[in-house]
Amino acid sequence: MNSFLEYISLSWDHVLVLALGHALVVAISLAIDIVIGVSLGVLVYRRERAANVALAITSTFLTIPSFALFGLFIPIFGLGYTPAVVALVMYGLLPILRNTVAGLRSVDPAVAEAAKGMGMTARERLLRIELPLAWPVIIAGVRVSTMLLMGIAAIAAVVNGPGLGEDIFAGLARVGSATALNLVIGGILSIIVLALLFDTFFTVLGKLTTSRGIRD
């Protein structure tokens, strides 16, 4: 324990740089996932066959081993941010798409019909009625996707991607040395802290952006 605390005190600036890189690549990937997942969910939630196809494809992404996917992307995208972001976007799509479809389908049809009777167009009903009512379910999907990406982002180190995976893999490569365990534990604990921070952010965001009537 003393050895680990000494390591952190001497290397906190290095760990902080890696943590910021880890947070950034997750944030970029998650932002892309939200745009694609919510947009695709809006397009397919009324079409059963289209929704099933979209969910099946995004489910298939999660069955691909992360090491294999990152390796396949090296000849296509090279090393660094690009293969990391593309892979993370693929892995993070399903929870957001699935929850968007589920949330929009859970809206009471009577509410949508009432809005239609008031003269609202389909777009107005979507933006002012359906999406706000589905938002708590959608934000829950975003939180699940965030936790998923936090862990997988560490694997991006195999393609020279940013993040705390660099220390984890460096430690695993030095098993038996004095610093190996400190590197691995430092990377893992930092990822856990980042995951908690991101989850807290989206929890608060969900409460602030959800109508009080829905919360109550």
Account of the 3D structure:
- With 216 residues, this protein is an all-alpha fold.
- It has one domain: MetI-like fold, CATH 1.10.3720.
- It is built from nine helices and no strands.
- It has helices spanning 2-44, 48-63, 66-77, 81-105, 109-117, 122-152, 165-173, 180-209, 212-215.
- The longest helix is centred in the N-terminal third of the chain and has 43 residues, at 2-44.
- The radius of gyration is 21 Å and the shape is elongated.
- The model has no long low-confidence stretch (mean pLDDT 87).
Shape: elongated
Helix content: over 70%
Mean pLDDT: 87
Total count of strands: 0
Name of the top-level CATH class = Mainly Alpha
Which percent band covers the strand fraction?
Answer: under 5%
Count of discrete alpha- or pi-helical segments spanning 4 or more residues: 9
State the secondary-structure class.
Answer: mainly alpha
Mind telling me the CATH superfamily name? MetI-like
User: How would a crystallographer describe the biggest sheet?
Assistant: none
* Spatial gap, N to C terminus: 46 Å
CATH architecture term: Orthogonal Bundle
How many domains is the backbone divided into?
A: 1
The CATH topology comes to: MetI-like fold
